[in-house]
Specification:
Number of helices: 9
Number of strands: 15
CATH superfamily of the domain at 1-22 and 31-111 and 337-361: P-loop containing nucleotide triphosphate hydrolases
Strand order of the largest sheet: 2-1-4-5-6-7
Strand content: 15-25%
Order of helices and strands: EEEHEEEEHEHHHEHEEHHEHEEE
Largest sheet: 6 strands, antiparallel
Structural class: alpha/beta
Radius of gyration: 22 Å
CATH architecture of the domain at 1-22 and 31-111 and 337-361: 3-Layer(aba) Sandwich
CATH class of the domain at 1-22 and 31-111 and 337-361: Alpha Beta
Distance between the termini: 25 Å
């Protein structure tokens, strides 16, 4: 798939911007604070329906404007499609070819994206929730239905959590309801565990290749899930029931998984430098891209924010050379396009961003 045109109104600092983005490489360049990342974020919003920088939707709307709009034109296996995202104080809408969308299945059948931004490096040393989300985003890219599986599982955990809190508060519990919720948790949780393990296995096959492509040498990168196996989940939940009733929290299930990352056999969380952490996460994202190319079908967009601040010139050139061999459309923000090295001239759009306006240059 390619995002061949992007139109943005009242998004962040962008009043009205229209871009021709049909090239394989879309390079958004200019000084800091001019709106490069805002444009990349807008493309990412269409492709993922979430901002990678801001959880509060009201802050995405330009100050003083009633609503923000993002319109994209996507060329893929289903032909030329038009997507529109709208958000305002009194309006929230998704339109696919002019038709309102009540579910996300059709939307994500048209557009998806893999995203790297510098803050992702914090996931290596951060809390397990961030690493779980990293894997769940990779699973979603591979199988859009994974999003609903995650949501279904978390609804069960929320219901069970509420029941356990009531049990602690009132010193009584509805055991029949708790049994039902545990059965649902184990069934849906086992499916979630198996899906995560499939994705991790696929990334594990490619992450060394990706790390080597960036660093120039094999990195001996390891990745594994830490938590009960799918087949052991029921026994683990049963064993934890007493503790859960005493503490009023759900102690067992894939919502407590961790994802262990290693470099040369050492836990990256404890031993990786900041630079190693950035390269490791970028290698994981690149492994997602390689996995998508291997699967075939419409390749997701690859969005890379502020990449030239993360890699030296030699590593950058190696990364770009690899990306040039893949079918994905690649968006990159940078203060210095020369730092990217040679790009295919006939299939690269260079857009200079100044005060929220982008023009070829």
């Amino acid at each position: 798939m390619r995002l061949t045109a992007l139109e943005v109104w009242d998004w962040r600092n962008l009043r009205a911007t229209q871009l021709d983005t049909g090239a394989r490489f879309v390079v958004l360049h200019g000084d800091n604070g001019q709106g490069k990342t805002n444009l990349l974020e807008a493309a990412g919003m269409l492709a993922t329906l979430r901002s990678f920088r801001e959880a509060r939707a009201a802050r995405l709307i330009r100050q003083g404007a009633p609503l923000a709009r993002i319109v994209g034109q996507v060329q893929g296996s289903s032909g030329l499609r038009r997507l529109e995202w709208r958000r305002g104080a009194k309006e929230r809408a998704l339109l696919l070819d002019g038709e309102p969308q009540s579910t996300l299945t059709g939307w994500f059948g048209v557009i998806r994206a893999i995203l790297f931004h510098p803050e992702l490096a914090e996931l290596v040393r951060g809390e397990p929730a961030g690493r779980r989300e990293l894997i769940d985003r990779a699973a979603f890219t591979a199988e859009p239905g994974h999003l609903e599986l995650v949501r279904a599982y978390h609804r069960i955990v929320q219901h069970k959590s509420a029941l356990l809190r009531r049990a602690v508060a009132h010193a009584a519990v509805d055991h029949a309801l708790l049994d039902t919720l545990d059965e649902q948790l184990c069934h849906t949780g086992a499916r979630l565990i198996r899906r995560r393990e499939r994705v991790i296995a696929g990334l594990g096959e490619l992450v060394d290749e990706a790390h080597g492509a960036i660093a120039g040498v094999p990195g001996k990168v390891g990745i594994r899930r830490v938590g009960p196996a799918a087949g052991d989940l029921t026994a683990a939940v049963e064993a934890a029931r007493g503790d859960e009733l005493r503490r009023g929290i759900v102690l067992v299930g894939p919502h407590r998984d961790d994802i262990e990352l290693t470099l040369a056999g050492q836990p990256a969380r404890a031993f990786a430098s900041q630079g190693q952490a950035r390269t490791l996460v970028l290698a994981l994202k690149l492994a997602e891209v390689l996995a998508a190319a291997r699967r075939g079908g419409d390749p997701p967009l690859f969005l890379l924010d502020d990449l030239t601040s993360e890699l030296d010139r030699r590593r950058m050139e190696r990364l770009v050379a690899l990306l040039a061999t893949l079918p994905h459309q690649v968006w990159i923000t940078t203060t210095d396009p020369a730092w990217l090295g040679p790009l295919p001239a006939a299939d690269t759009a260079r857009l200079r961003v100044v005060e929220g306006t982008a023009a070829p240059g």
